[in-house]
Amino acid sequence: MGVFVNGLIGNDYVTATSTSATFDTKNVGNGKTVTVTGITLGGADAGDYSLNNTTITTTANITVKDLTVTGLTAGKVYDGTPDATLGGNPTLVGIISPDVVTLTELLPRASVIRTRLTTKLLQSLLGTR
């Protein structure tokens, strides 16, 4: 992990690295506290400097993780409406263990967009006019 070095004199070459950075919580949010530890100096001129601290805190954001629903099917027998029946065995992909996330409700029907093109396509496939 890179750490910015402040207060160098002239063209001195000093780098800083850290061994760990940890959020104070695992939960999504903005402005979360991050503790950076194990900061050390390196580089050709590192011996000319010392650290006031080897641990710092800063803030950062934890953003949401996208999940994907798989295994969902839709279909119907033609009935003159745009509604579709949902089925299958829907599952969520991308859950991070040990978090528990479940699908609590799926609507039994979904609306199918019906256009003149899909009507003509259905008529052609079904052999009706």
Query: How large is the radius of gyration?
Result: 29 Å
Measured between the Cα atoms of the first and last residue, the distance is 68 Å
Globular, elongated, flat, extended or rod-shaped: what is the shape? rod-shaped
DSSP, total strands: 9
Query: What is the average per-residue confidence, as pLDDT, rounded to a whole number?
Result: 82
- Class per helix and strand makeup: mainly beta
- Uncertain parts: none
Counting structural domains, the number is: 2
Number of helices: 1
Helix and strand sequence: EEEEEEEEEH
Helix content: under 10%
Biggest sheet, spatial arrangement of strands? 1-2-5
Tell me about the largest β-sheet. 3 strands, antiparallel
Portion in beta strands: 35-45%
Topology:
Layout: E1 2-3, E2 15-17, E3 20-23, E4 29-37, E5 40-42, E6 56-62, E7 68-75, E8 83-93, E9 109-111, H1 116-126
Antiparallel strand pairs: 1-2, 2-5, 3-4, 4-6, 7-8, 8-9
Explained architecture:
The protein has 129 residues and is mainly β. The protein has two domains: 2-62, no CATH class; 68-126, no CATH class. It is 9% helix and 39% strand. It contains one helix and nine strands; from the N terminus they run βββββββββα. The protein has a three-stranded antiparallel beta sheet, with no helix packed on it. The longest helix has 11 residues, at 116-126. The protein is rod-shaped. The termini are far apart.
